[in-house]
Amino acid sequence: MRTAKLFGTLAALVMGAVAVAATPAAAESPFEPLPAPNASYTMVMYEAGITLDDPTAAVPPTAIARATLECYPHGGTHPTPEAACESLWQVGGEFDQLPTDPAAVCPAVVRPVTVEVKGHWFNEPAHFKHTYNNRCLAAVESDNVFRF
C-alpha cells in the first residue's frame, strides 16, 4: 500500500514537471506586436484660408476631408496608402517635391482648399501646408497623395 502511494505521488510529480516544461514561457509568445510605422501623417483639407493655426478665425475651422497615412508598414484611412507611400518614398518624404501629372485635366473651378499635414517621416517631424485652386488640383499636383 505504501509503495502504491509512493508511486502515485511520484507519478503526479513527474506529470506536473512535464506539464510545466511543455508550457511556453510568457516571453516566447507567438504574437509579436506590429512594428510602429516609419512614417505617419494626419492630413486635413479645409476651405482655403481656414486652418487650425489661424487664431483670428471667427469660426472654428471645419475639415472638408481628412485622412491618416502610415508608411512602412502601410495603412491608415487613406484610400490608397501603398501608392501614396511610394510617391513619398520617391521624394524622400518632401511633400513639396511630389510630381504633377501633366496629362491630368481638372475642371476650371476656383474653389480653393488648403491641405495641412502633420506627422513624421523616419523619426523626422514633418509639417506641410499648401493652398490649391480646388480639390482636383490638390490631388493632381501631389501625385494623388492628397486624393482623399
From TrEMBL:
Keyword presence, Glycosyltransferase: no
Main location per the UniProt record: secreted
InterPro entries according to UniProt: Prot_inh_I16_SSI, Prot_inh_SSI_I16_CS, Subtilisin_inhibitor, Subtilisin_inhibitor-like_sf
Coiled-coil zones: none
Domain of life: Bacteria
Domain (Subtilisin inhibitor) ranges: 63-134
Alphabetic keyword roster: Disulfide bond, Protease inhibitor, Secreted, Serine protease inhibitor, Signal
Pfam families: SSI
Signal peptide: 1-21
Compartments where located: Secreted
Annotated PROSITE patterns: SSI
SUPFAM superfamilies in UniProt: Subtilisin inhibitor
Family from the record: Belongs to the protease inhibitor I16 (SSI) family.
Oligomeric and partner information: Homodimer.
The protein, known as: Subtilisin inhibitor domain-containing protein
